[in-house]
Design a protein that fits this description.
Strand order of the largest sheet of chain A: 2-1-3-4-5-11
CATH superfamily of the largest domain in chain A: Response regulator
Shape of chain A: elongated
Distance between the termini of chain A: 64 Å
Oligomer: homodimer
Helix content of chain A: 40-55%
Structural class of chain A: alpha/beta
Largest sheet of chain A: 6 strands, parallel
CATH topology of the largest domain in chain A: Rossmann fold
Order of helices and strands of chain A: HHHHEHEHEHEEHEHEHEHEHEHEE
CATH architecture of the largest domain in chain A: 3-Layer(aba) Sandwich
Chain lengths: 330, 330
DNA sequence: CTGTTAGCGCATTCAG
DNA sequence: CTGAATGCGCTAACAG
């Protein structure tokens, strides 16, 4: 069913049908009605691709996420989609996978689909390769990075001060009387790099020497990864008094490990995660966490992207401030 | 940059460029090389919409999810996307919202975008309204429902026997010596209706009278909803020995409530959830859960949809079998 | 107020 | 082996 089919049956020209569909003025009432009836009758819906072709506008936004199973990122995509849908944009959410090659592939797909804007979710997109890919494939559409940034004229970024956030966590544990503090990393990423920096700085400013800096890496970014890493920490340093984790998921694994090993949490050992996720409310004791302002970041990203779509303001870099949510694990 | 631009610079016709792009035979080697160089040079990418228009094929699949924040559903979408991406399809994942009106809107969007196949995630799409919408808007593309079914010629469904699954849970608790068993419902949905039925049947077959059937509904489908509902159960029936929850998330809220109220889990009170989600591994004690075969369902859905895209086999109804995963809460 | 024409970017005849 | 012409479904400019 095309506008021509409708036009023929209505005894008018295709352009008239087009005008009716798009509510353009200058059509006699009766004609408009007659066409509308046919449109209704055949449940006609314009082909978005054909329309996009002539309008030079697809009204599509691409949202790239390394792994859509990561709750934190999907939640953000949820907020962004909701905002942009209100404004008539259709968001296509895609999971790219972790390697630069896979990410590149999806960037190409977005180019082919001629999306009008792009959201890159998470710091994992902050690589030189991606920067090049954006330059060659997506240089003419606004790109907003959530918790990331690349210095390109069409790229904006919303960031959260995770480094000083973790720094504050170190001090917070100190104030609770915890001196010996370890850091558990779930995976490598620029974002986690900042967190490590915050940990290092915090420890240093509290007078810790190099040998007091205990950084452990999970074998996998998961509950089990956090559990195992925590076992390692506590075996090597049984006198550990506090552990900061790069994400809640690893931290809740850590809680379990600590309890299994007979530690009193928080009396003997204080645990802190990052993300303010639901995980921290499920575990027992409930997890103290660094709120990295997911919702606020998402809102900011959506509004910056929308401004970009309208051709206004670009190349912004917005910084949000994290804060500690105190619960039972400290 | 269009094929015409490339053609002009290469000194050939657009059709030649098109042939090169699509690896069609019958082009002199040198010509092919020359065009390829230009394609490379300008990072040319064909416009998917324009190509779709002439090919009458968009290579797009729509995946509709009521709420993309629901881990269980997003995970399934993740599997399906991965499968279909391998086969050259681009999946657009969208969150529709819970009401029929919102769902209808997204079904229309899929029609406009001329997707070639649709996945409907979860039993929430099993309504008469949606059935009508599919008939009018999506009658000519294969539709696969994950954990749902509608009797329409182009609709297939992958289902799991949640009713007999819950039935088995009742018997399992009985075998553990738990007689007084309540059921906590997180929200209304056809899927949850089946679970209630399984609970009712199980209780009845164990000789329970009507007054022994304790069904409680959460005020909200969340951790807190499960907590509050559990408090209600235990206040009204302090002698409860087992609670089955419609989802893990509510169950882990329930564990906390039970512990807060001084119950011994599992000694005094056995708790079971449904979904085999990560939540059940985070809480303490770890949650016994009914594995409803998410991954298997997703795989089946992807392969059925793919068959449909190829025009083979349709209107299937596949049934999978759930099984109890025993952990610490029972 | 409405019809005719052209063109969006591409793949595919059909000629040469 | 390659080019010219046509049309996919739609909107917009221009005539009438």
């Amino acid at each position: 069913m095309t506008i021509y089919d409708i036009a023929r049956e209505a005894g008018v020209a295709a352009s008239t049908v087009s005008r009716v569909i798009n509510n353009k003025p200058g059509i006699r009432k009766e004609t408009r009605e007659r066409v509308k009836q046919l449109l209704e009758k055949y449940d006609y819906t314009p082909d978005a691709a054909a329309r996009g072709l002539v309008m030079q506008s697809t009204k599509m936004i691409g949202i790239l996420i390394v792994d859509i199973r990561v709750t934190h990122h999907v939640n953000s995509a949820f907020f962004i989609e909701k905002e942009l849908a209100k404004r008539g944009y259709c968001c296509i959410i895609m999971g790219t996978g972790p390697t630069d090659e896979m990410k590149e592939e999806y960037i190409k797909i977005l180019q082919q689909r001629r999306v009008e804007g792009v959201i890159l979710m998470g710091s994992m997109y902050m690589t030189e390769k991606i920067k090049k890919n954006i330059q060659t494939h997506l240089s003419n559409v606004p790109v907003v990075m959530v918790n990331g940034y690349l210095d390109l004229p069409n790229v904006s970024g919303v960031l959260v001060d995770e480094d000083t956030g973790i720094y504050k966590c170190v001090n917070y544990l100190r104030d609770k009387g915890k001196q010996k503090i370890a850091f558990v990393l779930d995976s490598m990423s620029p974002s986690n790099g900042k967190k490590i920096q915050g940990y290092r700085d915090g420890m240093r400013d509290n007078g810790c020497a190099k040998e007091d800096i205990w950084i452990y890496k999970c074998r996998e970014s998961s509950l089990k990864g956090g559990y195992d890493a925590t076992v390692d920490v506590l075996k090597e340093h049984p006198d550990t008094q506090g552990i900061i984790y790069s994400v809640d998921l690893a931290a809740v694994g850590g809680i379990r490990a600590a309890l299994d090993m007979g530690y009193d949490v928080p009396g003997q050992l204080g645990l802190i995660g990052v993300d303010n996720s639901i995980y921290g409310e499920i575990c027992m004791p409930k997890l103290t966490t660094l709120n990295n302002k997911l919702e606020e970041m998402s809102e900011a990203a959506a509004s910056i992207l929308y401004a970009g779509l309208l051709g206004k303001g670009k190349n912004q870099k917005v910084m949000l401030y994290s804060e500690i949510i105190e619960r039972e694990s400290t």
